[in-house]
């Protein structure tokens, strides 16, 4: 019901207050030439931004399923505790997503205009702000770990397990923030490959690898630490891709 109400509001807003946007499907058809008025390049640009975002949402569900499967041998309490811990982590992650997406128009506009000095400033602020925010959230959530767990459940065993899991996941929160900014930067700059690689890494490929290796080497503790290690590895990949795919940002000769 909430989604329906939200969509209805957006439709009403575009119909009443937007002169440039339309939901009429006829606007994308070139009647004179009897074909879509959207070019292949425009479709490609839409997909370059949309597909990584869709994959990110998909891998969130896949990642939770993988973690639960590896935790099942240690009992349902461990599965329940991890589920709650991940929900608490999502409080911070969704804030990261909001700020990172908010920077996308600025990043895209300045990259398209080749205004590299201003783009560097925007990225510097984005990385610094979200990294500091992640550090603050790490401290706050770590200090209130058991209190936050009690909002979801009263079982003392699950609270203890979940508090420990939460503290481990928080160790890589800064990495998550930096990966978010880098992914949005690639999307805004049309670097589809970079955005795709990061989208499938954190809760997809990297998590699968760290879960498999961690469970073999350290058992239960390896499974608990798998997501944090995957976040760190994905952040390293993000740095490498950023340097390789956006060399113009390092050139001081750019306008």
Automatic annotation (TrEMBL):
* Segments traversing the membrane: 43-72, 78-101, 122-144, 156-181, 193-212, 224-246
- Sorted alphabetically, which Pfam families does this protein's record hold? MatE (PF01554)
Looking up InterPro entries in the UniProt record yields:
MATE_fam, MATE_MepA_subfamily
Per UniProt, which keywords does this protein have? Cell membrane, Membrane, Transmembrane, Transmembrane helix
What kind of membrane protein is this, topologically? Answer: Multi-pass membrane protein
Q: Which GO terms describe its cellular component?
A: plasma membrane
Location(s) in or outside the cell? Cell membrane
The yes or no answer to whether the keyword Membrane is present is yes
The domain of life is Bacteria
GO molecular function terms listed in the Swiss-Prot or TrEMBL record: antiporter activity; xenobiotic transmembrane transporter activity
Return the PANTHER family for the record. MULTIDRUG EXPORT PROTEIN MEPA, SPORULATION PROTEIN YKVU
Protein name, please? MATE family efflux transporter
UniProt source species: Bifidobacterium longum
């Amino acid at each position: 019901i909430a989604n329906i109400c939200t969509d209805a509001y957006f439709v009403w807003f575009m119909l009443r207050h937007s002169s440039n946007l339309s939901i009429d499907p006829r606007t994308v058809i070139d009647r004179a030439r009897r074909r879509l008025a959207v070019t292949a390049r425009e479709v490609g640009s839409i997909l370059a931004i949309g597909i990584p975002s869709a994959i990110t949402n998909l891998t969130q569900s896949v990642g939770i399923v993988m973690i639960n499967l590896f935790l099942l041998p240690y009992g349902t309490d461990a599965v329940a505790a991890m589920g709650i811990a991940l929900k608490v982590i999502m409080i911070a992650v969704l804030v990261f997503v909001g700020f990172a997406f908010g920077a996308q128009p600025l990043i895209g506009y300045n990259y398209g205009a080749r205004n590299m000095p201003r783009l560097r400033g925007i990225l510097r602020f984005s990385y610094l702000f979200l990294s500091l925010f992640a550090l603050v959230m790490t401290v706050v959530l770590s200090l209130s770990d058991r209190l936050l767990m009690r909002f979801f459940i009263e079982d003392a065993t699950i609270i203890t397990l979940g508090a420990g899991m939460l503290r481990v996941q928080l160790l890589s929160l800064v990495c998550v923030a930096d990966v978010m900014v880098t992914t949005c930067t690639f999307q805004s700059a049309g670097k589809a490959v970079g955005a795709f690689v990061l989208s499938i890494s954190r809760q997809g490929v990297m998590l699968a690898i760290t879960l498999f290796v961690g469970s073999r080497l350290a058992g239960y503790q390896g499974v608990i630490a798998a997501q944090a290690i995957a976040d760190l590895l994905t952040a390293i990949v993000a740095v490498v891709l950023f340097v390789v795919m956006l060399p113009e940002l390092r050139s001081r000769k750019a306008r």
